[in-house]
Write a structure and sequence with these properties.
The complex is a heterodimer of chains A (about 500) and B (about 290). Chain A is α/β, with parallel strands linked by helices and about 500 residues long. Chain A is about 35% helix and about 25% strand. In chain A, β11 and β12 form a beta hairpin. The longest helix of chain A has 20 residues. The chains are: A alpha/beta (about 500), B alpha/beta (about 290). Chains A and B meet through β1, α13 and α14 of A and α3, α8, β6 and α10 of B. β1 of chain A pairs parallel with β6 of chain B, so a sheet runs across the interface.
Chain lengths: ~500, ~290
Amino acid sequence: MGEAGRSTQAVQVIESSQSSRSTQVILSVGIDLGTTTTKMVVSELTLRNTALGAAIPRIEITGKKVVYRSGIHFTPLTGEDRIDATAVFRIIEEEYRRAGVSGREIKTGAVIITGEAAKKANAEEVVHLLADRAGDFVVATAGPDLEGILAGKGSGAAERSRKAGRLVANLDIGGGTTNIAVFWKGNVLETCTLEVGGRAVEIEAGGKIRRISRAARVVAAETGIGLREGRPAALEVLRRLADRMAACVAAVLDGKEPDRLTRQLLVGERRKLSVRPEEILYSGGVGELIMVGAPAATLAEVAAYNDIGPLLAVSLRQNSVLVRFLTVQPVETIRATVVGAGAQATEVSGTTIFVEDGMLPLKNIPVVKPAGELVPDTEAEIAAWLGQALHFFDSGQEKATLAVALPPLRECGFGNVAALARGIVAALGPRLDGGEPVIVLLSDDVAKALGQMLKLEISRPKNIICLDQVKVENGDYVDIGRPLSDGRVVPVIAKTLAFA
Amino acid sequence: MGQTGVINQVEQIVETVLAELARRRGTAKIQPVFLDGEGDQADPLVEASQVAVPNPARLDALIAMKETTPARLGVWRAGPRYRTITLLKFRADHATAVDAVFRPVSEKFLADLGLFTVQTEVKNKDEYLTRPDLGRRLPPEAMETIKARCKPNPQVQIIVVDGLSSTAVEANVRDVLPAMTQGLTAMGVTVGTPFFIRYGRVGVQDQVGMALSAEVMVSLIGERPGLATAESMSAYLIYRPTKDTIESDRMVVSNIHRGGTPPVEAGAHLATIVKKILDAKTSGVKLRL
């Protein structure tokens, strides 16, 4: 800071003299198994030291470039309730071949299973298998909130909020769900998911209704629309259905108290958004139809994809509430989620961290984050506070390896960090006796110091990982990869694993 | 009340204000301040670090921008000039920087940390600033003290040097020193007896290293203060300094302060760098970390 950093030219500036040399490019894959379609992207992530002068290096992902986009494949199913895993693997293998990459070259990435696909009986099994096959550190993810966030990062909504300084909402509208994520300063503020998607009503080639989703049935019943599977589809009826669904999306975005119907379409506990976005972006398959202005004036146009996607796009585009929001052109539409998973899911830890050899990678580790804005001050308070959170976690599920995530410390002095180390050891007590590793995720830049102090308290080898600059919430899962950039940072993917 | 009494009282007030300023700088979030009407009652210390643009079109965006930098953005103006409060804040920060250079490291601080003191060939602050060469040399009596009080042949000898900011030394050494010592001890590295050098420059570490036959010398030294912070400290490291040592044999970790790398983390980081130097038996540009 100030003049100080400049006064040292003659001396070797530790590590930063190597910063230009130590730029590292790694390949990352994203795979999106959606309600209707499956797609894949390969991205190049550039890691570089961005610290100035002689300061301790700060390795950041400075470049995210999509280098291969797959085709859009229909998600293969066997019957109503199962994903055809073999067919999925074949699609991905073929796309790897076309991209000219092998699983061994892929250093990181994420597979996300979304919408209706996440509800299939073998969803969990397929997504984990696919992640294991896809590369060295490719992680399995699922959950509507995460989907909305990744889509908003892929579409450019997150970046837009940072650059324009505005509240930006991304509406990712696919076959099964509409995932809304609101961004501010590049970070997600809120998410909200509705069961509104193009696949609400499936239409056969002959114009008959093949299948009506649960959500469409609810909307039809609530608004007195007659819909029957096997009957010919009437354009006017479908339009009323799509208009009503669009109105539910608009009401949520407008911050209105949701009506009875909207409440029935909301997924999870979120009732409405607490902030009103200034700009919106559309992504997902239906989002793409909105942006290209796909027609839906005839039944043939409506049924172009054997569902009501084009009609829903028109209803959303013409909704009187939604037109009042400034609509921004997204950088990705139908591939927003998969680009988000491939290029934006991976983060890197801080550069001064504590990782013992041979412990990584670690996958699917549940995160326990005690409530509170700050870490309490004394060892005893910390032990009690953390102990309570761990007890709550233990009562919820089987004993499992877990990661403790902490809010900021009031002060980062030596004494404060020492008290934290002793408090953590006291709270983990029985787990340590059982040989469980200690994984601590901090927001303050004190991971190495904390690791060093934990090591003094716990003498067993291969036991401690302390990382900083990692953003996770209680109930998330985290995957931690092998060190990158000459061992100075580790890749971290914070995620959810929510299968409906 | 005599003149001395008044001066003491003024000093006390200044101390309080500076302490408060430092405290708020460390913790306060940027908040809008409303300048209409209540302006006279607004706390100038709070106001100066915050948004002063009246009725900004996008207050939240301005705050977001200000949070990315300690630079003086959005200070507004009075006609073509700074507002009085902006000028006062600027001068207060400048005064803090000047104080960091001219004030001595307090005896109480050194006693708390159990550091004894030796002085370079420099006689006072003015000479210190004008004669960098003297700040790199220790007189014979200082060398005798060091040899008498320090453990000889340590693997690592740590010294604390005032350099150009006593403020930085007082703000960081309390956390850096124990974290580094603890880290080194845990790695089985023997640490010598740390002490304090008054009126010291970076190069003074060579003479100490040679006298004690230390494998690695580490100097914790105050950096030249700027207007953003006066608390920034650096650590300079060198493997077995000799009379032929040149600057490219040294290594530096800078920006150690609570707004940069927190001192406790810097201490742990320095321990691992020392270990790498010990393992490689070299330092500076010859060492690829």
